[in-house]
Amino acid sequence: MRAIGYFRESAQRGETLAQQNKAFLEFCEREGYEVAGSFVDAASSNGHAPGFRQLVAFLRERDKGFVVVVIPSIEALGGDLRDAARRFFQIEGLGAQIAPMTGTTDPAADLVTAWGAQDVNARLGDRVRAAMRKKAVKGEVLGRPPYGYKVGNRRRLELIPEEAVVVRYIFRLYLNEGMGIRLIARRLNGEDLKTRRGGNWSMVSIRDILRNRAYLGTYSRFGVRVPGSHPPLVSTEDFRMVQDRLNARRTSYAPRVASQFLLSGMAHCGHCGNKLIGVSRKQSWKRQSGEKVSNSYRYYQCESRTNQSVCGYHTRRADDLEAQARQALSDAFSIGSGFPQAGDDAAVLAEQQLELERHRARLRAIDRRLGGYIDAASKGRLPKEKMHTLSVGAAGDRLGVEDAIEIAERRIAEHLSASDRKRAREKDVAHLLDDWDEIPFPERQSALREVVARITVTDDQALSLTLRA
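The structure assignment produced for this chain is given below.
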């Protein structure tokens, strides 16, 4: 088995990079690993980790074979435990095994244990939660009130009559008329009933209402339940029957593997303007011979149709649409049009900086999600196997955003002139088109988003690309 070492220079641990490398070589000899190389990060990296990024690039190579990443310890992966956790799950998500030289047999379990033992801002957080819990015990509203209610006297929930009618209507349609969530959304949108923000109803908003125990007259927050704190909108029996029906539809609890859709966030419906979202479906049927056959289908569908039951049934097979987008991009540059000439350099730079901030905001959101999974596992609220699956997925999402940030920071640092920027991006497009199938999915999607602002799709197989200026 081939072994790759990863070390970080750290004054806290008191080990030089040379000492860590020596320990790595001795560990590999003892365990019978073939040394394939090592990656290092110096203490003066100013928050960046070029060595770890090089390790990620290596692990993404198709012909790398099976490798084990040897590290001094789990904590040595990053500057703090959160950083180490992110990198741990990123490495595992890239298909490599992690071997700490401390000799631990279950590094993921050690990570969860260390996470539960940390005391970062714990006392302040406990004081805040205690104060919030006191308010919750009194039935005082914390946060946004649910649809159908407003915050009234003594910060208790009070009915909004016109919204309360809609809540009762939703429960009646689901329970008494047997309508599904999608059909209820279509009915409400068809009757021009709007959400609190004046938008269309979606499957998610309908499901949230049907699941919300606040409509029983019980206020729940911070583990505290206060029955009878406000007027109910549904009876206990009706609410129970609704939950039974919702739960009965969840027949499979097998972990779902999310499909990757290249054009997510770029493709839009040419009829209503909303985004096209990726949808996966599995169908099974029986042949005349009695043989059972199944197949999976991936396609893009208008989000308005999927979640709100408005707009038409506009779908396109994922492979066909992605191939067409590639061809359209190739055609745009083969006829010599390419990118439009960029305008004011200051405006372009401002746009790039805004995009960088959006990427960083996504990074913070992913970090909160990943931290929440590990925290829940450390407190016994989430099975460790489930935590591992969710954390690997979140860490993979983070790698994609890190790729986008790296590109954005490079462009801002270079701050190319309009003509140089145009030539550089056209070179990027040439690389994207020539090596399309060889480029890893996260890098390919990030590169495509760098050049394509919008893809508009209609039912007549037409597709139009709007390139970024």
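Interim note for the steering committee: The first strand starts at residue 2 and ends at 8. The CA atoms of residues 71 and 100 lie 5 Å apart.
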